[in-house]
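pinging the channel bc i need a second pair of eyes. not urgent but kinda urgent?? the chain im working w is below, pasted from the shared doc
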Amino acid sequence: MATSALQGAPMPTTDDRTTSDGDLRLVGITKRFGRFTAVDDLDLTVPQGSFFALLGPSGCGKTTTLRMVAGLEQPTQGQVLLGDRDVTGTKPYQRPVNTVFQSYALFPHLDVFENVAFGLRRRRKKEVKADVDAVLELVQLEHLAKSKPGLLSGGQQQRVALARAIVNRPSVLLLDEPLGALDLKLRRQMQVELKRIQTEVGLTFVHVTHDQEEAMTMADTIAVMNGGRIEQMGSPTELYERPCTTFAANFLGQSNLIQATVTGTAGDDLLIDVHGQRVTLPRQRSTVTDGRLWLGVRPEKLRVAGPDDAGNRLTGIVTDASFIGVATYYLVRMPWGQELTVVQQNDGTPPLPPGEPLTVTWLPDHGFGLDATQDEHAGAEAIDPDAPAPAGAAR
């Protein structure tokens, strides 16, 4: 199989290039451009063989971080380490790192085979056919080996660019917004393909994106960046279900953030007052255990309450109802004036019209508590309006 051929092949080496195995580590990395600090004292470890995503809005420092790993930017201070090797001061071509950019940069006069073989031939490797055939099989393009790039679709061109990088067997493959030029349907197909390829080859992938769905679909671990720092890091599930800051809560999907106050405890739960209504929240799901806080609930975790439903309950008035087939999106105005977004899955019940009272309920384990001094809207303004939200989330 292609994967075994690739996994068994040693990384090409030259006098200036040596194999580096192990984790990618950034130690105290800072990058300043004049008075502007793009990356601020960043410590980060990317485990070998993982699919890691740097996620954040434009200007958050994610691309600058990637360029420092690639050697295209020199850090103002700090170290870049690959395994035990310090590569901070080495040239890009001396690092066992390859980058796939949004622009494919294929050679139009070369066929697919020769585009992929280019790097191997440049290092004067005599036998390239087995390696190129193996990687073309991996990206499912072996039948197009003799085609010119101009005859390929955008997704096929992206896979050629990926194959050209993988065939060199880098220790780390950097992906800089690689799917940004593709349409939505093709982008989603390529997300699945990229994850499959990474799993089969076992290389370390570091993926930079502003697209939440892209990061959550592919990455084992996501680092949410904001203002040159990591806001929160963890698995897609951890970040979405238990955000630690309002920025993380708003940037990955949408959150209803409600002003509330902790009034006491009951066992492992916090007792919380929401504008005169009592609700509960598990202590371990809150960064705040007394005083004021933001009580967060994702729109899809709210349900139109039935008479026997257990859990926390709040009642308001429907101000908008949008039926989209799989679900109804409600806006529900609470007595204190705030509108909550509710995503009610289609269970055959006709949507309630505006003006009708609606009681929503949610399980205490589906809420989270955040520091009330943080900006309620942090992260929400940073979302690209053209980027798709995670499945089940509302904008």
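so The longest helix spans residues 184-201. and The domain at 2-237 is CATH 3.40.50.300 (Rossmann fold). — does that match what u expected or am i reading it wrong
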